[in-house]
């Protein structure tokens, strides 16, 4: 598990600062398989996870949901046959916060755990 995945999310509120360009670069280096994409004018972290079937994708989705609930930070999840697309961003600030990078790393850790 990465050092970033071991961290905890902090309470975030409207008006909290988004990550700076420098912070974004350093944090993104720790989760290089995630894309930073513009979603309706807001930066988000996005990654597609591949599975053999729907059942495995559903198990993963539920595990990500459990981690999200524990951290009180929730992603957008698209569950399809054989794949799950996970997107992280902080709704309250309309972009990326350190919490999103932490949760992306935690999502990778969930994927790394065998079923």
The ordered H/E elements are HHEEHEEH
Q: Uncertain spans, ≥5 residues at pLDDT below 50?
A: none
Helicity level: 40-55%
Assign the CATH topology of the domain at 42-115: Gyrase A, domain 2
Please report the total strand number as a whole number: 4
Round the Cα radius of gyration to an integer and report it. 14 Å
What's the mean pLDDT score? 94
- Total helical elements: 4
At CATH's second level, what is the architecture of the domain at 42-115? 2-Layer Sandwich
Top keywords for this entry?
Gyrase A, domain 2; 4 strands; alpha+beta; 40% helix; 115 residues; 4 helices
Structural commentary:
- This protein is of the alpha+beta class and 115 residues long.
- The protein has a domain at 42-115: 2-Layer Sandwich (Gyrase A, domain 2).
- Helix content is 40%, strand content 22%.
- It is built from four helices and four strands.
- Helix 3 (54-71) crosses helix 4 (98-112).
- It is globular, with a radius of gyration of 14 Å.
Give me a quick take on this structure.
The chain is α+β, with helices and mostly antiparallel strands. It contains four helices and four strands; from the N terminus they run ααββαββα.
Strand and helix layout:
Blueprint (H helix, E strand, L loop, with lengths): L2 H4 L14 H9 L5 E5 L2 E9 L3 H18 L4 E5 L2 E6 L9 H15 L3
Antiparallel strand pairs: 1-2, 2-4, 3-4
């Amino acid at each position: 598990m990465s050092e970033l995945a071991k961290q905890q999310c902090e309470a975030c509120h409207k008006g909290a600062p988004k990550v700076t360009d420098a912070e974004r670069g350093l944090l993104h280096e720790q989760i290089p398989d995630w894309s930073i994409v513009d979603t309706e004018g807001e930066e988000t972290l996005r990654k597609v996870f591949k599975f053999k079937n729907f059942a495995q994708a559903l198990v993963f989705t539920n595990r990500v949901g459990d981690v999200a609930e524990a951290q009180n930070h929730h992603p957008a999840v698209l569950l399809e046959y054989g794949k799950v697309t996970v997107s992280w961003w902080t709704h309250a600030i309309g972009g990326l916060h350190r919490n999103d990078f932490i949760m992306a790393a935690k999502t990778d850790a969930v994927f790394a755990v065998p079923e």
